[in-house]
Amino acid sequence: MTGVPRSAGDLALDPAALRPLLRNPGWFDTARAAVAADPSALPRAFALAGRRAGRGPLHPATDPAGVVHGTVDDAARAALVVALATVDTRTPHHDVPRPGTHSPEIAATELATRLTTLYHQGDTAERRGVLRALDALVVRGSAPTALTGHAVPRERTAPSRSPRTPLEPDVPGTSATPASSLPEPLATAGIPLAEDALRANDTSLVAAAVGPFGARHLDAHTWRHAVLKLVFLGVPLDAVAHLDERADAELARMARDLAAERRAAGRDIPPDLTRLLRITKE
Amino acid sequence: MRILDPHIHMTSRTTDDYEAMYAAGVRAVVEPAFWLGQPRTSAASFTDYFDSLVGWERFRAAQFGIRHHAAIALNPKEANDPRCREVLTEIPRYLLKDGVVAVGEVGFDSMTPAEDEAFAAQLELARDADLPVLVHTPHRDKLAGTRRTLDVVRESGLPPERVLVDHLNETTVALVHDAGMWAGFSVYPDTKMDERRTVALLREYGTTRMIVNSAADWGRSDPLKTARTGREMLAAGFSDDDVDQVLWRNPAEFYGQSGNLVLDPVPGFVAGEPPAPGVEFEGSSVLRGVRA
Fold first, then answer.
1. Does B51 touch chain A (CB under 8 A)?
2. CB–CB of B289 and A235 under 8 A?
3. Overall fold of domain B3-285
4. Among A178, A183, B75, B147, who pairs with A149 as Cys (CB 3.0-4.6 Å)?
5. pLDDT at residue A5, as a whole number
6. Where are the domains of chain B?
């Protein structure tokens, strides 16, 4: 992984590395403690993160708008969620046990509900924060004991799809999963949020939906369209986590068709499209 | 000439307007929530609109190098519809959002009891959220409406410097100016104020706490009226510094009271190339493509 810039989701797991990038590190410490003590503090901290933490890009030299790898506030928001997830799920005996929270599964359900509300009531930056938080939880990998649940299979059935459209079967090699999977309630809640972001035209939202969470949990059809959409939007494919691992023959075919379309129109082939054309998987 | 248009409804405008505004010197705007011409029928219709003001419209403006901010409120006209009034409970969470620099537009349309109630309630929300307020004054019965407006503001206990009273003219400016509030002038092609009359009032009342906007929307209006008023000021003998005060520093000071105004240049934006297809920064392409 050397040489790969750390995205907002990665930095959220490393508060010591994130802290010096923040406008007001004291706020960050206080907010994480507040969220850990009382989850209802999260929405306000989420809304204020841009003003307190700053909004600059994490990698200004290569990503001046913070679209590809995220922004300082993206990482701060994701870290707030990690702080909450750690409390909600890693402490088996929360000092004030709320009814129904004894089961680890329910703790993940609660977190899923909170993330869904944060996303739907959030502005663009807050929505990115939720998506980057899902990335952080996936990257954290060895999910805490309380978060272990049944992973959702990567390829979902898509009942709404026309039966006349032949579905490209997913490559069965899911054993080579590019990232660990989240417990079922979090994955189930996160997938529609990522799909919502992928319908947006705001480039920063689309880019935030193709991180490690998207790589692990989006179905193949949705994921391929997300990659192609980034090419249309002109967002560098460096935004896509595990691109080489997940790229498949069907994505290569889509890229070839797009390249043919652009040549026919007398338009350039952008470098990222060329990158997709090099996919040689069967 | 640098311009902060403190009242403009960009949702109703085209990308051509954004380009022309940037070329004329507009670097920041505030878009207050208002009605859409077609009445809304539910609170959900408002929340989608508010989401768009703090989301899509801000993104769109940034593609053209313009910083976009919002003021959030239930407008006076729709305060009369009980189906819409329910949105009042949703407004506090929007007042926390980044880039929300005021409560507005609030005020009176037909001066009904329902408007009165929504106005007072939202002044209270502004106090709780520590935000300034953009107040619309009515088109019909304007003088009486403005007097009534100032009474409601005084009853709220909000400090006068936190209040911008808009759509003023020759008959209403003195009331607002004397009350220590900010005076706003909407410069339109044929209604409200025009450039010459606005400049005459700036001569008479000075440039302190005076604010000029285009209030451009879906009606006949002109998003460059701020710049045109600036040129009219220069032609009338005002200095560049006077113009800068009225078109930039005054609105920046008023909305800056929110602590939520961002006026530095949009990162990654290259002037003259909106929306910048093919922009490269040290070999890395950013925001370069078409809309998919």
1. yes
2. yes
3. TIM Barrel (3.20.20)
4. A183
5. 87
6. 3-285
pLDDT score at A27:
98
Residues 6+ apart with CB under 8 A from B37: B218, B219
Contacts B96 to A, Cβ<8 Å:
44, 47-48
Tokens of B16: 């051509």
Among chain A residues, CA nearest to B279: A234
Average pLDDT, chain B: 92
> What is the identity of the amino acid at B6?
P
Chain B within 8 Å of A120 (Cβ-Cβ)? no
Amino acid occupying residue B223: P
Tell me how far the alpha carbon of residue B62 is from its chain's centroid.
17
Among A91-95, A232-236, B77-81, B134-138, the minimum mean pLDDT is found in: A91-95
Is residue B60 predicted with pLDDT exceeding 80? yes
Rounded CA-CA distance B197/B222 in Å is 16
Give the whole-angstrom CA distance, residue B211 versus residue B248.
9
Note the pLDDT of residue A98: 53
Please, are residues A204 and B57 in contact by the beta-carbon 8 Å criterion?
no
Task: Decide: helix, strand or coil at residue A119.
Answer: helix
Structure tokens at B251: 């609105």
Q: Nearest residue of B to residue A47 by CA position?
A: B97
Nearest CA in chain B to A73: B98
Q: Among A164-178, A204-218, B212-226, B268-282, whose mean pLDDT is lowest?
A: A164-178
Whether residue A147 has pLDDT greater than 60: no
> ipTM score of the complex?
0.79
